[in-house]
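Provenance

Sequences were taken from public entries as deposited. Structures were produced by running a predictor on each sequence independently, with no templates supplied. The record for Ig-like domain-containing protein from Dreissena polymorpha is shown for reference.
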Amino acid sequence: MSFIADRPAIRSVYVNQTCGNSEDVCITCFVRGNPLANISLRRPGQNIAIIECLNTTECNVKISKSAIKSSEYECTASNLIGTARQTITIQDDLKGKSFFEASQ
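Predicted structure for Ig-like domain-containing protein:
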């Protein structure tokens, strides 16, 4: 049996304003990789993550609209093979859904 390892790839990152109540926004990051990745969501340029999810393919965080300090957030996925990053911009008016689909 062979083990094929690959670095993480960010499949998609999106913002959904229909999670929980109307005062919340959810940011979700989907990743593939073998072995599974550790995923973090943070504001670009900051070392402290808003949330970290270990050994998984999905990570999401719920943020109160009033607590959004920046319009940009970064999803970082790392495993033993490598690291991938993707930034998403949240629309200022929070209307609709911001969405990024990663290229394959």
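The radius of gyration is 14 Å.
Residues 23 and 54 are 27 Å apart (CA to CA).
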